[in-house]
Amino acid sequence: MTLALPKQALPPQPTAVPAAGLRATARIVARSDDGSGTTRLPVLDGDGPLALRRIRAHGDQARVCVVGAMSAPLGGDRLRIEATAEAGSALHITAAAATVALPGRTGEPATYDVHLTVGDGARLDWLPEPLISAAGSDLRMTTTVELAPTARLVLREEQVLGRSGEQTGTLRSRLTVRRAGRTLLDQETAYGPGVPGWDTPAVLGGHRAVGQLLVVDRQEESGPPEVRLLGAEAGERSADGAGQGVLAPLAGDAVLATALAPDALRLRRLLDEAARGAAAG
């Protein structure tokens, strides 16, 4: 005789939670074609949100555009770009749009690492669009550049603290540039909630866009430019809300411009002025 036992409800099973954040690495390698004098791209490997597109070359310079294939970086994401300009090559890297750091499902910070290597006689232009730190986000960004003794570099970095009408997230950024193994520039900045004094007159003074332009080029005959304030070309003054900046020489045939502005548009104007000043020597 078989007894039918009442069915017992099974305890609820926990829903599988995906690992926090995604991992993605994009790789670019530029190589000089000795036969034609142009630059080839033997490696152009995008990953995840980091899609890479080859765009029309300019002279002997290969050009690559980074396209955001999805929203990133979010909290917990680990993103990385590795770009190498081998000896004698010329590489220009830009972006299709601004990068927006957003909060994720967890409280973990996101990381965005950029590693650039430039060989002897090579030139690399790293000119992305601005990075926007949205409210609630937490991003740790590092940019590391390794230059050979005769390498040339143009590097622009722009950061906007918060979208229109919102507070900023937390943004920590470090830029390290080494030439022939010796440190040329190593600086770290931090803004947003939890960072003491970041919005005081001693740091940003109420501005919400900050950027810099670094030019490393051996032009021993012309010599480095003199220290100059930015914004003077248009007769602008900080009191007019146009921002302010300075262009100054560094050791090792390099110049660095640092600028603050109320928004990304006025920041770009200051850095464009710095680029013209650096080119004039």
UniProtKB/TrEMBL annotation:
InterPro entries: UreD. Pfam families: UreD. The keyword Cytoplasm applies. The keyword Cytoplasm applies. It comes from the Bacteria. It is found in: Cytoplasm. Keywords: Chaperone, Cytoplasm, Nickel insertion. Belongs to the UreD family. UreD, UreF and UreG form a complex that acts as a GTP-hydrolysis-dependent molecular chaperone, activating the urease apoprotein by helping to assemble the nickel containing metallocenter of UreC. The UreE protein probably delivers the nickel. Required for maturation of urease via the functional incorporation of the urease nickel metallocenter. This is Urease accessory protein UreD. It comes from Streptomyces sirii. The lineage of its organism: Bacteria, Bacillati, Actinomycetota, Actinomycetes, Kitasatosporales.
